[in-house]
Design a protein that fits this description.
Blueprint: E1 3-5, E2 24-25, H1 28-38, H2 43-46, H3 48-52, H4 63-68, H5 70-77, E3 79-81, E4 84-97, E5 106-120, E6 123-134, E7 142-152
Parallel strand pairs: 1-3
Antiparallel strand pairs: 2-5, 4-7, 5-6, 6-7
Length: 155
């Protein structure tokens, strides 16, 4: 679960490593739905028979599917400032896809809060380093530096 923190304690949470999230299994139905949403129907994602003949041996999740799952995982690793009423995804400073996620693989997120700064009263900018671990694999699926904004009710 997300961790609620007080504004006065922000400095204590720089370099905070959240516990790893729960595992999530990426299945073919999810990959197919993502392909439909993004109009990316490359065979390596949606054709299990053709994908068997590739070096991956099966279909693989889109890199952007793995990246988009950070929103799901953030529900477990996020730090939430007390008084929070809205969060905004502000983008990424860095994203690297390091390892494909084969169909039916289990993945989970690891997150470290790199910085939290109040950019104006009631608005906090978070920079979080995240990685997606693939069960049984030393190389993560991806690493990223995620920028998000939290709007917090003023006292």
């Amino acid at each position: 679960m997300s961790k609620i923190i007080n504004k006065a304690d922000i400095a204590q949470y720089i370099d905070y490593q959240a516990p790893p999230t729960n595992w999530h299994q990426v299945n073919q139905a999810q990959i197919d739905q993502f392909a439909d949403c993004t109009l990316d129907h490359q065979f390596i994602h949606v054709d299990p028979e053709k994908a068997k003949a590739t070096p991956f041996g099966s279909t693989i999740a889109h890199g952007f599917l793995s990246l988009s799952l950070l929103s799901h995982f953030a529900e477990e690793f996020a730090l939430i400032i007390d008084g929070f009423y809205m969060g905004i995804n502000s983008g990424f400073d860095k994203v690297r896809f390091l390892q494909p996620v084969n169909v039916d693989s289990k993945i989970r997120a690891h997150a470290t809060t790199l910085s939290i700064e109040e950019t104006k009263p009631g608005q906090f900018r978070f920079k979080t380093q995240v990685s997606i671990e693939i069960e049984g694999n030393e190389t993560p699926a991806l690493i990223a530096e995620w920028i998000s904004i939290q709007l917090v009710k003023e006292d």
